[in-house]
Design goal:
Helix content is about 10%, strand content about 60%. With about 120 residues, it is mainly beta. The chain is elongated and about 60 Å long.
Length: about 120
């Protein structure tokens, strides 16, 4: 299965070039609902959190990567879309929390972009 992240560049959904890895994580806060009636701790679900980590080869001319870099530099939101095997299926908005670039000797340059989403993934029509 080929799963890619796309970002909007000049009103066109563009896949970030040379993606090598994608990690999506969903978490839920646990709210302590313990009381004196029970000897064991009890919990209920709280708010959901989502993060996205994107890894790839550094392509200096990639406009989608440039949009991610511009977002962290300008403190702007990014709209992400996920595609499965070429079909765009869902989207979410978020903020780029970390952008790392590595330029090793005698090897390819790579990047990692970590985002915290401020909306849940929603299915596209």
């Amino acid at each position: 299965m080929r799963v890619l992240i796309l970002v909007e560049v000049a009103s066109v959904w563009t896949a970030v070039a040379a993606q090598t890895g994608l990690t999506r994580e969903t978490t839920r806060e646990m709210i302590d609902s313990s009381n004196k009636d029970h000897d064991h701790m009890r919990f209920i679900y709280g708010k959901q959190g989502d993060t996205l980590s994107l890894e790839g080869l550094f392509v200096p001319t990639d406009t989608a990567y440039a949009a991610i870099r511009d977002a962290i530099e300008n403190k702007t939101q990014v709209v992400f879309r996920r595609s499965f095997d070429g079909t765009e299926v869902e989207e979410a908005t978020g903020l780029i929390e970390t952008l790392s670039e590595e330029f090793p000797d005698s090897d390819v340059a790579v990047y990692t972009a970590d985002a915290t989403l401020d909306t849940a993934w929603s299915a596209l029509p």
